[in-house]
Amino acid sequence: MTGNGELLLVIGPPAVGKMTVGRAVCERSDFRLFHNHHTIEPLIEVFGFGTPPFEVLNHEFRRRVIEEAARHDVRLVFTFCWDIDSEADTGGFRGLFEPYVAAGRRVSFVELCADLPIRLDRNRGDDRIAHKRSKADLAWSDAHVRELAARHRFSTDPADPSTPADEVLREF
User: What are 8-64's pLDDT values in tens digits?
Assistant: First the structure.
């Protein structure tokens, strides 16, 4: 491995604590945090959540930040909700961490899991709302967490290691 750059990917469903864990890692190390709402919040204000320009720019901004971090040997924690059943999500996710792999940097994963009632409780936490302005609309935010939980699977299952995500995770 060349340089000191390393990427720690903290994955899991919405409101599971990815940012909280990422911040704790950064407080105890020289890692820097790039949580998924660093790109989401400004784009929501301009384009609205989930619109085509939001999706394009959200992915592009994340990709560029990670490219530059890899190029400059930054030890980075990146948080992400990964729909593990989605080939498209998996391909996009692989593209995000590829700059670290291509540069010979270490890539590690931490997966967080929690049941929906726990995540809905966490969704209302003051710290979460303080760092993620869009979460201040609690009705929208709770509905969004529930909707995503109903439509996507964000946690791997050792009993079913056949998802596109599992194929990527086996490489690491």
Answer: 999 999 999 999 999 999 999 999 999 999 999 999 999 999 999 999 999 999 999
The Cα–Cα gap between 67 and 103 comes to 10
Q: 81 and 16 in contact (C-beta within 8 Å)?
A: no
Q: Where are the beta strands (DSSP E) in the chain?
A: 6-11, 32-34, 75-80, 106-111
With pLDDT > 90 as the criterion, what percentage of the chain qualifies? 67
CA distance 2 to 39: 28
Could you tell me the strand order of the sheet in which 106-111 lies?
Answer: 32-34, 75-80, 6-11, 106-111
Cα 160 from chain centroid? 22
List of residues 6+ apart from 54 with CB closer than 8 A:
43, 44, 47, 48
* CA distance to 6, 15, 66, 103, per residue, from 73 (Å): 7, 29, 10, 9
Amino acid making up residue 63: R
Degrees, nearest 5: CA angle 160-163-164? 160
The amino acid at 121? D
Structure confidence at residue 165 as a pLDDT band (50, 70, 90): confident
